[in-house]
Amino acid sequence: MPTLVHYDVTDRVALLTVDNPPVNALTPALWNAIDEAVARGVADEAVDGMVLIGAGSTFIAGADIKIFDTLRSREQCLERSAANHALLARLENATKPLVAAIHGNALGGGLEVAMACHFRIAVVSAHVGQPEVLLGIIPGAGGTQRLPRLSGAAVALEMCTGGKPVSAPDALRAGILDQVVDDDLRAGAIALVNTRAATGQIRRTRDIAITPTEAAAGLAACEKTRAALGTASRGSRAPFAVVDAIEAALTLPFDAGSARERELSADCILSTESKALRHLFFAEREVSKIPDIPKDTPVAEIRRAAVVGAGTMGAGIAMTYANAGIPVLLKEVDEAALERGMATIRRNYESSVAKGRMTPDALARTIARITPTTSYDGFDSVDVVVEAVFENMDLKKATFAELAGVTRAECLLASNSSTLDIDELATASGRPAQVIGHHYFSPANVMKLLEIVRARATSKEAVATSLTLAKRLGKVGVVVGNCFGFVANRMLAYYMREAYLLLEEGGTVPQIDRALVEFGFPVGPFGMQDIAGIDVGTRIRQYLASLGKTRAEGPQSEVPDELFALGRYGQKTGAGWYKYDAPGGRARTPDPLIDEIATRAAARRGVTRGPIEDADIVARITTALANEGARVLEEGYALRPGDIDVIYVYGFGFPRWRGGPMFYADTVGLPVILARVREYRERFGDYWRPAPLLERLVAEGRGFYGQAQRSA
Ligand code: 3HC
Description:
This protein is α/β, with parallel strands linked by helices. The protein is 50% helix and 12% strand. The strands form 5 sheets. It has an 8-stranded mixed sheet, sandwiched between helices. A 6-stranded mixed sheet has the order 1-2-3-4-6-9, sandwiched between helices. A 3-stranded mixed sheet has the order 5-7-8. It is globular, with a radius of gyration of 28 Å. The structure holds 3-hydroxybutanoyl-coenzyme A (3HC).
């Protein structure tokens, strides 16, 4: 067994060094090892005080998240957290000064351990936080009771409901830390122990009194937070449990408040919401692990980039590179198009400055990294080119052929196509090993998803480089296969097909959007399309029709094409599925005209419109996603169900706390999903065909994630 906490004495101070790579996560064995090390220091006559410090790159990043899966009942959860509470009480009751010395991160249980120490010192670059809510749980080792005592309720509420870590200087100001040092943390911590030991000082966080005035202000802050969460949490429950627990800290003695925290924590750990969020935590990290691409695959360094095409996508992609500090050439065919692209970029940055998200200095520095050009000059020194020209195969092929002539042989050639065959582009370039899809989502500088499309001849180095580059650009890169629409848009076509058909059957645009927003999406399908532009979808449909193809099997609703013909492209034209206050405006009202168009379209297909329940809307749409997702998986275009979940959460705002479409299907139960597909087939026609994988999993009694699971 490796030593989890090293014990060394220097100058009558015991250094307790936590050593559980990579992030010193608190396993049960580590909790015990900390307990034993502190007890040893207390009993050691050669020691006057102790420093708890982390080995490696961080202090303690929290409890080991995998442990929560082993807790199956409320009793087990309560037992575990009671044991942790008792352990932290022993730390706090230590009779010699105990200092937590923080570098890297003190997160979750890591901050809770630090708050049970008598004093806290950190290096200036460190961060502390209670991110449990992002995992659907609440701080369960006294964090909701100790943090308000140190920082006051308002800061504790913000940290525990938002989950965002705060910097060491901010934590010092908030009273969470006692001291911040620029460098030598160890020496600083030893000095702090020595001064406290000399004067016999010990401060127990639990003993800090909350005055009646502070409690009253804290309770008001709790109410305010609950009201704000009403809309911001989009159906997630954990943030509310956090507020309840902090409220208990303000109204109950420490031990009673801690008991309340344990109960709330147990309910959260067992919730489907938390299982979903924990699943995503690991799925997000797994996406960068590709079975046939070893970890040590060489990765090209990206020092300079180029983007071809300065339309909405090209401009957003150039901004993404500039934001990450990478100089980028932005090429267009003529000055006018280039100027339009640069104007979009300037407008976006200026709006960030106006919102206080960027300083004017940063704007100047960032925009200077983008060099507009109408020629290929300088392309011979870039490491990656992203092609973002109009979605037309001939144009793209010609561009790839040109690019191969003006770039170095090892330069990565990426296409931002959302639909076209990357193999064809690879052939056109004559350099297929370097050709890959980098499919960004609109707005490219904001959306975190990057679909990395691996074509037949794409080299392993090109995939590995793209994954590393995605991280550097602040994106979550998911490797997918080269099928039509790749994974995100292929599944979206089924999502949209159902939205249109539900409208024809009698649902209304506001009702369908509302049902999906209540389910947890930030925006419904029609609202989303009004933002993206109805013209985009229609042009793709027209292009496909010219090839004799459709995006999704089944009837193609004519309603969106009628809106297109009326020039109703969405927000940008002031009308689409909704009416807007002005072109580009956001204030929208429902438009009775849509119902008239839908009624006529339904009549043409022999469908009589009638009322539809919200629950049926959600069932139809999520079933379509799961069924098509199963096909994508079986055909090997996504490596794992988790990859699809990550794509949907980051690309289309599928509610995180439901885990993504595949995880959600498991929680509903695949037998239910399959029964629905069969029922829809009866009702609507053969285009509803169960995916073979879905049928097989149900026959084997399994879910997408192995063990079949159902929500409570
Ligand atoms: N438990 C288990 N594994 C963890 C972990 C944790 N708390 N934190 C990180 N890891 C693992 C990751 O899965 C990853 O494993 P892999 O290499 O096999 O994929 C590895 O550690 C490195 O993590 P990252 O890839 O995320 O590394 P980064 O350097 O990008 O980020 C980090 C480091 C900021 C610490 C980030 O990992 C993180 O945010 N971790 C989770 C922090 C957290 O949520 N803590 C709260 C846990 S719940 C809790 O403490 C309950 C308490 O109230 C009792």
